[in-house]
Amino acid sequence: MTSGSPSLTVSRLAYAYPDGTQALYGVDLTIERGERVALLGPNGAGKTTLVMHLNGILTAGHGTVEVAGLAVRADTLREIRRRVGLVFQDPDDQLFMPTVREDVAFGPANLGLRGAELDRRVHDALERVGMLDAIDRPPHHLSFGQRRRVAVATVLAMEPEILVLDEPSSNLDPASRRELAEILKSLDVTVLMVTHDLPYALELCERSLIMSEGVIAADGPTHALLADERLLAAHRLELPYGFAVPAQPG
Amino acid sequence: MHVPDGFFNVPVSVGAGVFAAAGVAVCLRGAKRELDDRTAPMAGLVAAFIFAAQMLNFPVAAGTSGHLLGGALAAILVGPYTAVLCVAVVLLVQGFFFADGGLTALGVNITLMAIVTAVVGWAVFRLITRGRPRGRATLVAASFVAALVSVPSAALVFTGLFWLGGTAPIEPGSVAAAMVGVHLLIGLGEGFITALTVSSVLAVRPDLVYGARGMTRALTLRTADGDVQVGQQGGPAAPEAPSAGIGLRPVLVGGALVAVLLAGVVSFYASSAPDGLEKVAADKGLSAQEKPHAVEDGPLAGYSVKGVENQRLSGGLAGVAGVALTVVAGGGVFYVIRRRRRGTDGMTTASAQ
Amino acid sequence: MSAGHHHPIYRPADTPVHRLPPQCKLAAVVAFAVFVVATPRERVWAFALDALLLAAVAVAARVPAGAIVRRMVIEVPFVLFAVAIPLIGTGERIQVLGLSLSAPGLWAAWNILAKATLGVVASILLAATTEPRMMLLGAERLRLPRLLVQIATFMLRYLDVILDQMRRMRIARESRGFVARDLRQAPVLAKSAGALFIRSYERGERVHLAMLSRGYTGEMPTIRDISATGRDWAVAGMLPCLAAVTALLAWSTT
């Protein structure tokens, strides 16, 4: 692949929805290969809008998005969507096929894979999230946590350059939350994780971005950002009651 | 209203099946224009919504309750082509997955509950809203009338089919009176719920109401470099600008359909003092059934031998011929319009009225 | 009216009927229904034969009679209608238990009851022995337009999700003391319907985005395919063929 260029580069990205509401006012960020980065911010900060730009679902009103050196444009969409794996917040939106197997195969099949190669991708992806047993079950018979893991597998099967997760820990019970964290840590892929769940960000990501009112308001080590109470308060972010940021490791 | 097997004779069932298949085929193409590559997921979700909405029972009068048919509602919310497709899929799924509605009656059911309700509903809606300022009140009132008219229309078409090939010896006149009467009442409920539903969607997401397109304005994109004018393409919900031709086609199809049916009903009453004939036929009674007409020996000919056999038989044959004619005529109209529209597509981008 | 019957009929089992490829079963059941409808109503024995055929299928598929009967409730509105036909029908009247009934009306009622019942039972057997997913694959094999099959696929996938949302809205309404008594309560129901539509539509948009994100370009990839052998067709064809023979016999014994 194009070694050297960062996994994701966004520069001066601005966007307004067709109804006139402007959501992004010039976003700049760079994520290097292999990094796990959290994107924090209150509701309405523009996080989801930004995510929609990363694989070209929304087209930039202004500015550019590059994935591993390739600019998001109408003629590069196919390759961009292979490189950017988007995991939606509601797994029911993501798992639209009648069985887990067909759902995980949907992406690679769109890339043109068939037969043994397709089967291998499906098996590998499900194995990495520990859901191989559920391969022939319909998604709506799985628990919520299981569905989210399968949703991650549907994206992993495309062997993406960068995995983008929208609120990965929402609606999960504590055990599922921990299992998903272990899976994400075990993956050898660049991760951008959009979340309100600050402890989860701290556990999984060394670096965090705080997004507020359509721009990146802060960028730094998660540990340092979460320890700055004034910064958090200024952007409507709060640590859960009773949670204290542990002393800097190492 | 799900008609079971055995209610209509074979010619009418097959004729309605051919008509329904042709209608669905036309709508598959139309829906692709309304929704392009979003057709499968969007129509699937809307079909699931209609299935669910049909379970909303509302009390009609004196202990009886009706439920939404949803054809007119779907046409106003998502456009006539998609609406026909969605209701047709609902009926197919109910028939094959839930054993609801006879498989041989699928053509009749799709014709009545998908095509007639959606097409009539949409035609009425367009007639009322066309050329008027599209305020919310107009749209809601139009939705009410459209849904109100759509239900007795389906009942009327049912009566027409029943006259052509029903298997029960009931006078078409009394069937018409009873069906249309009851369905006027149900139509009131349908109109009420449809209007209120459209109204509540208009209040929250007016951009989702297909029948309200043309209310949206041009947009400005405010970027770091100042204001930039943008078109509406690119967004996930980018609504296609409706073109003037869309409203016309369903009107024509609906018109043709109603014309054929009216022609049938009117000629029935004009040519054959029915009471007298029924009386004569009744005197023949069962004896007539023991020696059927020669043409009826084939298993696919009008098998339902009842009082007025010759007339019913000719009625059945006329039914097939009539439906075939309608299909041919409808197809011809579509073809001509499509050719004409293709020529003008380039300049219909913003002609909302 | 028949809304409300949305519980799946499928009964998982491993029988010869379950194992038949879905396209064979679909075609067989539709053909069976056509032949039943084409059978003259005066030949009561022909319908008895058809019923025996279905009973044989039910035994082979190990679908218990109770399950079929419970499902047949779906017919009830038309049973009521059929019962009314002899009372309001035209034609020669005969006296039964002091009631004046129309003779052709009685035949018509019998005709509808017999054919509707056979049709419903055949459909129940199809749905009980065919997984919904397989039914869709079978429909596609039978050349039903692919777009139509895809719409049905999405509909079935999201039906439970949407019915569940509707159930939650109903619980929310009722937990605040709402009872639908007459049309005056319609605005509340309509608001629910409106909200349900918006949720369904928005979910459709999100599903479309999820599809785009994984490389969808307007064509669903075919991943699974099921083929039927000549033997499968022969086995499935037994039901409609026997029904056809019955119908022919019924016609020829006039």
UniProtKB/TrEMBL annotation, chain A:
Membrane topology of this protein: Peripheral membrane protein
Q: Name one GO molecular function term.
A: ATP binding
Does this UniProt record's set of keywords contain Membrane? yes
Taking the first listed entry, what is the main subcellular location of this protein, grouped into a coarse class? Answer: membrane
Q: Which Pfam families match?
A: ABC_tran
Return the Gene3D superfamilies for the record: P-loop containing nucleotide triphosphate hydrolases
SUPFAM superfamilies for this protein: P-loop containing nucleoside triphosphate hydrolases
Domain of life, per UniProt, equals Bacteria
Subcellular localization(s) per the UniProt record: Cell membrane
What's in the keyword line of the UniProt record? ATP-binding, Cell membrane, Membrane, Nucleotide-binding, Translocase, Transport
For the keyword Cell membrane, the answer is yes
Q: Where is the ABC transporter domain?
A: 8-238
Similarity comment text for this entry: Belongs to the ABC transporter superfamily.
Q: What's this protein's function?
A: Probably part of an ABC transporter complex. Responsible for energy coupling to the transport system. Part of an ABC transporter complex. Responsible for energy coupling to the transport system.
Protein name in UniProt: ABC transporter ATP-binding protein
Q: Which organism is it from?
A: Microbispora siamensis
Automatic annotation (TrEMBL), chain B:
Q: Mind telling me which residue stretches traverse the membrane in this protein? A: 7-31, 43-60, 72-97, 103-125, 137-164, 176-204, 251-270, 316-337
Q: How does it sit in the membrane?
A: Multi-pass membrane protein
Main localization is membrane
Q: Specify the domain of life of the species encoding this protein.
A: Bacteria
Pfam families, alphabetized? CbiM, PDGLE
Location within or outside the cell:
Cell membrane
Q: Which residues form the PDGLE domain?
A: 250-339
Listed A to Z, the keywords are: Cell membrane, Membrane, Transmembrane, Transmembrane helix, Transport
> What is this protein called in UniProt?
PDGLE domain-containing protein
Q: Which organism is it from?
A: Microbispora siamensis
TrEMBL record, chain C:
A Pfam family that the UniProt record links to this protein: CbiQ
Record flagged with keyword Membrane: yes
Q: Where does this polypeptide localize?
A: Cell membrane
Keywords of the record: Cell membrane, Membrane, Transmembrane, Transmembrane helix
Q: Which InterPro entries match?
A: ABC/ECF_trnsptr_transmembrane, ECF_CbiQ, ECF_transporter_component
Give me the segments passing through the membrane: 44-62, 68-88, 108-127, 233-251
Membrane topology designation: Multi-pass membrane protein
The record's section on NCBIfam families has: ECF_T_CbiQ (TIGR02454)
**Protein name (Swiss-Prot/TrEMBL):** Cobalt ECF transporter T component CbiQ
Give the classification, highest ranks. Answer: Bacteria, Bacillati, Actinomycetota, Actinomycetes, Streptosporangiales
